[in-house]
């Protein structure tokens, strides 16, 4: 039987045949059993035959920019946590430890790509140009979203575990149907973030199936932070998560999620696969949730301190700092400058949060449906009367 030719996209409106897609898939291996790592925890750059080419153009200035991202994202996260502790936010979802997975993958995206986060992706939001102040409304309970989802190409946070995989699969199928896939320069892709625990949800399975069946340009980006609240990874799977992709017929790669350079390289590769019509792809970023699940959780009740201590040695920021200073002679004043910028960001976030106005009590009802709804109208009237009763008492 004649072998199909691998698909080489020429026309941006072109679509590969099924045979060409299958041929392409077979040309992509599983990523191997090993973790893809380019920067060791000690800050040494290690070669990687397969992925080096995806970061060959990264200059020292760009590495410094990634370092700055990591530090500022961590500071914004720590401020969010502190603001909750001071009663300024109802809840905060910390990303501590996952900065590299989020910044590496977030910086691999192009402006035209679409991202679907879960609820912990403050670092990806940062890379999409969303100011950390824009995240505060959801956690203070004054807003349902907070940013321009379409303009920033960053979907609202999704609390229902795994649900965004269906939204993302549908969106990526649309990119495929509208022939916005195929050209490596102009092709679009979608990335979907979810956790290790989410992989046990039906929605994620269904998202995998739909994306595979329609060759959707979708990077499933699983941040395996080893815990789903108090449930450890071994309650979710018998096999490494990246290997699950094989069962759906697309490639899976496990990357060191604490290595920003490796996350950038692997995500660039995965997005390129998708852009050129060879999606979907699963990336498992192997990382660790250094803090509790949320500020409502106490991780010391179910995990041992030495596990956390071990992961501290793999810190995502420290390895970049060591690499920059030892290998590239970056001077201390650069690091001090970034710290000063982080202090300013912290101050700005605190001041913004304390000054946030109370939303109009009517607002939570005004954008539920496009057309009037008698049920919502009744709820609005009841709530406004309840609200007014407090004003009367005070007055
Ligand atoms: C459908 C659904 N079930 C249960 C929950 C409660 N819940 C919130 S977070 C969470 C754990 C998710 O763990 P994981 O997918 O690993 O993501 P992580 O929080 O570690 O980033 C659960 C069970 C929920 N929000 N939605
Ligand atoms: Mg998890």
TrEMBL record:
<feature type="domain" description="Dehydrogenase E1 component">
    <location>
        <begin position="70"/>
        <end position="332"/>
    </location>
</feature>
<dbReference type="GO" id="GO:0009083">
    <property type="term" value="P:branched-chain amino acid catabolic process"/>
</dbReference>
<dbReference type="InterPro" id="IPR050771">
    <property type="entry name" value="Alpha-ketoacid_DH_E1_comp"/>
</dbReference>
<keyword id="KW-0786">Thiamine pyrophosphate</keyword>
<comment type="similarity">
    <text>Belongs to the BCKDHA family.</text>
</comment>
<dbReference type="InterPro" id="IPR001017">
    <property type="entry name" value="DH_E1"/>
</dbReference>
<dbReference type="InterPro" id="IPR029061">
    <property type="entry name" value="THDP-binding"/>
</dbReference>
<keyword id="KW-0560">Oxidoreductase</keyword>
<dbReference type="Pfam" id="PF00676">
    <property type="entry name" value="E1_dh"/>
</dbReference>
<keyword id="KW-0670">Pyruvate</keyword>
<dbReference type="GO" id="GO:0000287">
    <property type="term" value="F:magnesium ion binding"/>
</dbReference>
<protein>
    <recommendedName>
        <fullName>2-oxoisovalerate dehydrogenase subunit alpha</fullName>
        <ecNumber>1.2.4.4</ecNumber>
    </recommendedName>
</protein>
<comment type="function">
    <text>The branched-chain alpha-keto dehydrogenase complex catalyzes the overall conversion of alpha-keto acids to acyl-CoA and CO(2). It contains multiple copies of three enzymatic components: branched-chain alpha-keto acid decarboxylase (E1), lipoamide acyltransferase (E2) and lipoamide dehydrogenase (E3).</text>
</comment>
<dbReference type="GO" id="GO:0003863">
    <property type="term" value="F:branched-chain 2-oxo acid dehydrogenase activity"/>
</dbReference>
